[in-house]
Design a protein that fits this description.
Helix 1 packs across helix 10 and helix 2 packs across helix 3. Helix content is 35%, strand content 17%. The chain is built from 10 helices and 12 strands. The protein has a 12-stranded mixed β-sheet with strand order 3-4-2-1-5-12-11-6-7-10-8-9. It has 324 residues and is an alpha/beta fold. The protein has 2 domains: 185 residues, Isopropylmalate Dehydrogenase, CATH 3.40.718; 120 residues, Isopropylmalate Dehydrogenase (3-Layer(aba) Sandwich).
């Protein structure tokens, strides 16, 4: 059975998402078919697009043309100037994409970036972001964020909270959940039969025997020992400052980090344009470029499609892994 095309959501229409869609189509060609879901009025002038009725029809669209599943929005857009009137449309597109992938009409979702304040102002959007809304649509399932590239996969155990709040948030229950979701995702979505996971320490030198903090020994180490005894390939807690050089990265398939910057600094340093945001734990595949709406350069032809292209390729490969 042929793998269904991807569905790419439009994201915030005043951002760089629409202009990158056609460029991603040109870069990927027929190897990774996708349909763009949004209002064609928001595509850059001169975009060669064609309306389709289903994602499957994308496979028959001539190379160089962008297949579009039309979703009408309330207003046109000016690049760089978001309009809250379009917030409902952005939210509807995400929900519609989930419906397509749940029905099997699409094999995975690739989401262009959205702007949370615009959604809140225009539609009372109650979720912190894309990931939480997708988890809600999937039945309020637990999820984790992975940033992935060919050079490194990282999972932050805590994400958008102040650094001062991390020690209290990093509970044994949370760490166990993150490890289990990462382990399952590496098997199901990346085709690794026995994934190797490294866990970073919270404190410098992983606490250095308690001299620099107790959390590594009292919180992190017991969880690792218990799950390792179950058969999960785990190492840690490891000093974060020695985890990301080439020899260290060769020893694991993914690194779980204690806080946002501990995870994102190394991957953005190693592969700033090629990193992909992956949501693990969903019953469907979702990837996203690792950048925002970039209102300051929207419509100027300066945005690079590399991360969006990488997100499409990874989503396609993950869908193939799930199919076996």
């Amino acid at each position: 059975m042929t793998q269904a095309p991807l569905v790419m959501t439009c994201g915030e229409p005043a951002g760089i998402g629409p202009e990158l869609a056609a460029r991603a189509r040109a870069a990927l060609g027929p190897a990774v078919p996708f349909v763009w879901l949004g209002d064609p009025r928001h595509l850059p002038p001169g975009t060669d697009w064609i309306a389709v009725d289903t994602p499957q029809a994308a496979a028959n669209v001539p190379e160089g043309r962008l297949p579009v599943l039309t979703h009408r929005f309330a207003a046109r857009v000016t690049p760089g100037q978001p309009d809250p009137a379009n917030a409902i449309g952005v939210i509807e597109v995400i929900a519609r994409a989930v419906g397509l992938v749940q029905s099997g009409a699409a094999s995975a979702i690739v989401t262009a970036p959205l702007h949370k304040k615009v959604l809140k102002d225009g539609a009372g959007f109650a979720f912190p972001g894309h990931t939480e809304y997708l988890a809600h649509l999937a039945g309020d399932v637990p999820v984790v964020m992975m940033l992935a590239s060919p050079l490194l996969r990282v999972v932050p155990a805590t994400i958008h909270i102040p650094l001062a709040d991390v020690p209290a948030a990093l509970t044994p229950a949370l760490l166990e959940q993150v490890i289990r979701l990462t382990h399952a995702g590496l098997i199901r979505d990346f085709g690794l039969s026995t994934p190797r996971i490294a866990v970073a320490g919270l404190n410098p030198h992983a606490g250095e025997g308690g001299a620099m903090g107790h959390e590594d020994a009292s919180v992190i180490a017991p969880v690792i020992a218990r799950l390792h005894a179950e058969g999960i390939e785990l190492t840690g807690p490891l000093p974060a400052d020695t985890m990301f050089h080439p020899r260290a990265r060769a020893q694991y398939d993914a690194a779980i980090c204690c806080f946002h910057d501990q995870a994102l600094i190394p991957i953005k340093t190693l592969d700033f344009d090629g990193g992909v945001n992956v949501t693990l734990g969903l019953p469907f595949i979702r990837t996203s470029p690792d950048h925002g709406t970039a209102f300051d350069i929207a419509g100027k032809g300066l945005a690079l499609p590399d991360s969006l292209v990488a997100a499409c390729r990874l989503a396609w490969d993950m869908a193939a892994a799930r199919r076996g």
